[in-house]
């Protein structure tokens, strides 16, 4: 799958409270409603600026804090195609894979706001078109590739009825 | 080759001889979800085609994050949890019962040697009683509810060797804040932390919970401690389950060993807007605060309320602030009432709210206003955490919060603890 979009650059330690605030996430399971508030405490107009396919780019420890799965879901429903970060917090990383949001661990230090990026998930390549630069990607663990291939953990269970990584 | 606590628990629960880095599918002893995560887990459970739980006696839901419900939308989600719980015959703790991470160990659901997941990041709390427990998201919880299993990567371990004992007026909260300040918010990501040494052995179990609770704030998957006679005594009368204590081997391999001399530690404060932005208290001393909060899964236990009552006994809080108290559970609340602790706090000017998470997580019961400064015993001070992104949250020990409630500004508890 080839993803293409513009980069929105954030810093280090972007926690899940910033991604979707607790004051919203307890109210509803309507992810399209939650998506309107994505990253609101860091940039109140963020949702309005997103064009379908755009990407969130961050530094280290993206998704730290609360285990809320509403965080990757809100990002996905805000039409963000993937998140690139130099590292991810553990629970967010699992939640993203389980819900089918592509997360890419790579050196993000050479990506600036509004750079146009292309991500080839199959080949594991990030291409910064604005800077004509190719960025190598840390490969996903095998188990996660299998879950992603099924479309997420829900689909994995629909297919196998249990964990099946053979 | 010797094993860490994590390597032993994952070996026992996967039936394989595993070490850090190995991937396992492991059997779970208990799983938990709360009202911020369980509704989505129910959704995932149904989507997955789930019909029955792997073992209803090993699944608990806790309504604590917005309890009692402040909004219609929340009420609908609570209703969904109640109906699902009734239908599947799982354990439901409803409003007023308490915060999930107090209830799960307090009610005897987990014992040493267990492997536990909860759809809440502070599930790592039970590591204080030698349980490998870790936070997951809602879909992982759903998979666990159906299968009784989950996949894990066996983590490497950082050992924190705590030598000496804390000085009066310095608490386990100060220690864990200092550690997080040193190692940073992602210093232990993907790893387990083991806390060991005389300093831990001397602590009461409630103080140990505070440390294990905050392991996630340095990115750790678990915050583990060893079994000892204090854990044994604490468990006595709480549970029918048999503990299977797990100790690390002397030749276990650690990613890193860090040594802390507890005798040298001073009161600490985490400053806005990250938990690892930690300073010695003296650097922020006398900063005016408008709200003090005592409670949460970090510091809402009996010892925490007791030290606050000791400081506030016969006194009144500053007129310049509000002081909110949320006991961690109904049992804590009742015991604090029996001992006159609640009486003391209320007489001093505290507003006591229902046991639960509300103020900490910004759902209700104490949302600060723009520009206000809050001093809290919670575990997170992220911008917006308490429901207002224009407020400033500082984190400290219950003694520091109580001493500061007295003066209206950040105050060293050693100045009021005779």
Per DSSP, the total helix count of chain B is: 15
Along the chain, the helix and strand elements of chain A come as EHHHHEHEHEEEEHH
- The number of E-state strands of chain B comes to 18
- Annotated CATH homologous superfamily of chain A: Aconitase, domain 4
The chain-level structural class of chain B is alpha/beta
**Strand arrangement in the largest pleated sheet of chain A:** 4-3-2-1-5-6-7
**Fraction in beta strands of chain A:** 15-25%
Structural class by helix and strand composition of chain A: alpha/beta
Count of β-strands of chain A? 7
Average pLDDT metric of chain A: 94
Largest beta-sheet details of chain B: 5 strands, parallel
Query: Over the alpha carbons, how many angstroms does the gyration radius of chain A reach?
Result: 15 Å
- Binned, the helix content of chain A reads 25-40%
Task: Say what oligomer this is.
Answer: heterodimer
Shape by Cα distribution of chain B:
globular
Domains of chain B (count): 2
Poorly predicted ranges of chain B: none
User: What is the name of the CATH class of the largest domain in chain B?
Assistant: Alpha Beta
What does this structure look like?
- The complex is a heterodimer of chains A (166) and B (418).
- By secondary structure, chain A is of the alpha/beta class.
- Chain A has a single domain, classed as Aconitase, domain 4 (Alpha-Beta Barrel), CATH 3.20.19.10.
- In chain A, 31% of the residues lie in helices and 19% in strands.
- A 7-stranded mixed β-sheet of chain A has the order 4-3-2-1-5-6-7.
- In chain A, α7 (142-150) crosses α8.
- Chain A is globular, with a radius of gyration of 15 Å.
- Chain B has 418 residues and is of the alpha/beta class.
- Chain B has 2 domains: 5-260, Aconitase, domain 3, CATH 3.30.499; 272-413, Aconitase, domain 3 (2-Layer Sandwich).
- Chain B has 15 helices and 18 strands.
- Chain B has helices at 5-14, 38-47, 72-88, 100-106, 138-147, 172-183, 198-201, 205-213, 229-235, 296-299, 302-312, 330-338, 341-348, 358-361, 398-407, and strands at residues 23-27, 30-34, 59-62, 91-93, 115-119, 132-135, 149-153, 157-163, 192-196, 222-224, 256-261, 268-270, 278-280, 291-295, 322-326, 351-352, 373-376, 392-395.
- Chain B has a 5-stranded parallel β-sheet with strand order 4-3-2-5-6, with helices on both faces. Chain B has a 5-stranded parallel β-sheet with strand order 16-15-14-17-18. In chain B, strands 10-9-8-11 form a 4-stranded parallel β-sheet.
- The longest helix of chain B is centred in the N-terminal third of the chain and has 17 residues, at 72-88.
- The termini of chain B are far apart.
- At the A-B interface, α2, α6 and α8 of A face α2, α3, α5 and β7 of B.
């Amino acid at each position: 799958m080839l993803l293409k979009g513009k980069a929105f650059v954030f810093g280090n330690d972007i926690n899940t409270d910033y991604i979707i605030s607790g004051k919203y996430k307890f109210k509803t399971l309507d992810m399209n409603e939650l998506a309107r508030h994505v990253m609101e405490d860091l940039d109140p107009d963020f949702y309005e600026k997103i064009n379908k396919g755009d990407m969130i780019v961050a530094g280290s420890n993206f998704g730290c804090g609360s285990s809320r799965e509403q965080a990757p879901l809100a990002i996905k429903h805000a039409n963000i195609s993937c998140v690139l970060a130099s590292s991810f917090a553990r629970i967010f990383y699992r939640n993203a894979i389980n819900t089918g949001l592509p997360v890419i661990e790579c050196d993000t230090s050479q990506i600036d706001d509004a750079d146009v990026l292309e991500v080839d998930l199959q080949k594991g390549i990030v291409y910064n078109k604005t800077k004509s630069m190719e960025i190598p990607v840390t490969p996903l663990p095998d188990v996660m590739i299998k879950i992603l291939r099924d479309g997420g953990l829900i689909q994995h269970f629909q297919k196998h009825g249990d964990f099946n990584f053979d | 080759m010797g094993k860490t606590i994590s390597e032993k628990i994952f070996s026992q629960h996967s039936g394989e001889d595993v070490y850090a880095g190995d991937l396992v599918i492991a059997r779970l002893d208990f799983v938990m979800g709360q009202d911020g995560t369980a509704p989505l887990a129910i959704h995932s459970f149904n989507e997955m085609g789930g019909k029955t739980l792997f073992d209803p006696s090993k699944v608990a839901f806790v309504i604590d994050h917005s309890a009692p419900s402040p909004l219609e939308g929340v009420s609908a989600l609570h209703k969904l949890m109640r109906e699902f719980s009734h239908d599947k015959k799982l354990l439901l703790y409803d409003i007023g019962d308490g915060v999930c991470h107090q209830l799960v160990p307090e009610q005897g659901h987990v014992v040493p040697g267990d492997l536990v997941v909860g759809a809440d990041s502070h599930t790592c709390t039970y590591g204080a009683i030698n349980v490998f427990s870790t936070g997951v998201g809602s879909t992982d919880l759903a998979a666990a509810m159906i299968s009784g299993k989950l996949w894990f990567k066996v983590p490497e371990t950082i050992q924190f060797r705590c030598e000496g004992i804390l000085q009066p007026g310095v608490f386990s909260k100060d220690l864990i804040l200092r550690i997080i300040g040193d190692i940073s918010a992602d210093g232990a990501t993907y790893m387990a932390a083991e806390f060991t040494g005389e300093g831990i052995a001397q602590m009461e179990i409630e103080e140990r919970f505070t440390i294990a609770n905050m392991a996630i704030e340095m990115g750790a998957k678990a915050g583990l401690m060893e079994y000892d006679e204090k854990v044994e005594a604490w468990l006595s009368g709480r549970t029918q389950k048999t503990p299977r204590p797990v100790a690390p081997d002397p030749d276990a391999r650690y990613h890193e060993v860090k040594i802390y001399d507890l005798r040298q530690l001073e009161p600490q404060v985490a400053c806005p807007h990250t938990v690892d932005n930690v300073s010695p208290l003296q650097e922020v001393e006398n900063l005016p605060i408008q709200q003090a909060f005592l409670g949460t899964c970090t510091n809402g236990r009996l010892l925490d309320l007791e030290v606050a009552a000791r400081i506030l006994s016969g006194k009144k809080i500053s007129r310049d602030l509000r002081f909110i108290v949320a006991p961690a559970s109904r049992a804590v609340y009742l015991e604090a009432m029996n001992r006159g602790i609640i009486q003391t706090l209320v007489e001093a000017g505290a507003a006591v709210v229902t046991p639960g998470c509300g103020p900490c997580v910004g759902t209700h019961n104490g949302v600060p206003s723009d520009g206000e400064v809050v001093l809290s015993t919670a575990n997170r001070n992220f911008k917006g955490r308490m429901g207002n992104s224009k407020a400033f949250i500082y984190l400290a020990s219950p003694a520091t919060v109580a001493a500061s409630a007295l003066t209206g500004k950040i105050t060293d508890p050693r100045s009021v603890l005779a």
